[in-house]
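Input (structure):
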């Protein structure tokens, strides 16, 4: 069955968390390597239904293991977290099923297929995993069919860098399953004029007009495992269009609308990030939501409580969409890749507040997990 668990290899982190090494089959028969992280000690159905689910999408050149500390942090806060390598990247690229299968070799590893097949397969996997384990914690009457009930299990998607772009290709039926919230970490537009810093403008001009067009066709032969040739060329094409990926691929991104992605959105940009200046992150943020205000925060230990209170106040006002531009020393230190390092756990607590607030029940947001 597509998207189902194919193997398990348990790795114990501590007494409260378990990590399972899994593979996930997409609908076009590509096998993805993934890690499932979740709380270990679940005693009853109520506790099981209290575990909400998070998918983390990787950046270019970053293995899923890079996000492991962050995933463990979230699992300790009672979330089930799935990390995975996109097709053509790292562990997924080197699985025997993909490496020595002639039919697989003809499959595209581009951004469109990552959004059309990889992310839906990961979402289906979590749905299947939820149902497979649901009966283990059944405490309701034996006359009830637990598969026909409504469960308020939230699904969050956290995108790092290019994964925000990949979301534009996800079919609408799967965008609508992201009912808990979307968090983007330095997910930006690559169009040079969308950047408000000269160094970023020059960087993307070079990448989109010179580097990717020239070297893109040969990246499969270079040790850049996370950027297959077709991905490099699509990034360049998108970055040369003023509407970014939505203008470069209008047919393929037609499902990506705020009506289909109807969930709270939290977007982070960082002062020290030359790859994703705040204005380029803001461009993509406006595509995720109708909300068009950006708040600047200088985060430090003294401010973190106030930030939590601020998110709760906005939640009570039914305003769920926020862009956080992290300034000061924290913003300089984090840059494009530093958010997921354990030493920056302070800002993880800020994101955790958003997840906790949006895990709560809201009217008309109970979801039905259908039989698969």
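Output (sequence):
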């Amino acid at each position: 069955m597509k998207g189902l668990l194919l193997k398990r290899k348990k790795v114990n982190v501590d007494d409260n968390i378990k990590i399972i090494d899994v593979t996930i089959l997409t609908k076009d028969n590509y096998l993805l390597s993934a890690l499932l992280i979740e709380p270990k000690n679940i005693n009853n159905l109520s506790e099981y239904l209290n575990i909400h689910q998070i998918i983390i999408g990787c950046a270019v050149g970053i293995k899923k293991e890079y996000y492991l500390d962050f995933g463990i942090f979230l699992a300790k806060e009672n979330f089930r977290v799935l990390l995975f390598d996109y097709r053509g990247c790292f562990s997924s690229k080197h699985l025997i099923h993909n490496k020595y299968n002639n039919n697989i070799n003809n499959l595209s590893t581009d951004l469109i297929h990552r959004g059309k097949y990889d992310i839906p397969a990961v979402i289906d996997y979590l749905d299947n995993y939820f149902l497979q384990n649901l009966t283990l914690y059944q405490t309701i009457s034996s006359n009830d069919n637990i598969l026909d009930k409504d469960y308020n299990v939230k699904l969050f998607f956290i995108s790092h860098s290019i994964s925000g772009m990949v979301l534009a290709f996800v079919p609408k039926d799967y965008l609508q399953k992201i009912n808990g919230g979307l968090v983007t970490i330095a997910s930006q537009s690559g169009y040079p004029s969308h950047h408000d810093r000269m160094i970023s403008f020059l960087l993307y001009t070079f990448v989109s007009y010179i580097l990717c067009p020239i070297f893109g066709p040969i990246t499969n032969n270079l040790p850049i495992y996370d950027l297959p040739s077709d991905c490099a060329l699509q990034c360049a094409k998108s970055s040369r269009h003023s509407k970014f990926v939505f203008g470069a691929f209008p047919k393929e991104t037609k499902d990506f609308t705020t009506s289909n992605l109807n969930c709270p959105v939290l977007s982070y940009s960082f002062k020290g990030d030359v790859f994703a200046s705040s204005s380029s992150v803001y461009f993509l943020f406006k595509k995720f939501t109708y909300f068009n205000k950006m708040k600047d925060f200088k985060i430090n230990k003294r401010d973190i409580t106030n930030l939590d209170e601020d998110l709760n106040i906005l939640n009570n006002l039914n305003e769920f969409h926020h862009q956080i531009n992290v300034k000061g020393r924290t913003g300089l230190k984090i840059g494009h890749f530093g958010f997921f390092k354990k030493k920056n756990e302070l800002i993880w607590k800020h994101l955790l507040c958003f997840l906790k607030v949006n895990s709560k029940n809201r009217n008309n947001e109970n979801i039905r997990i259908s039989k698969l």
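Notes: The CA atoms of residues 42 and 265 lie 29 Å apart. Confidence is low (pLDDT under 50) at residues 1-12, 363-372.
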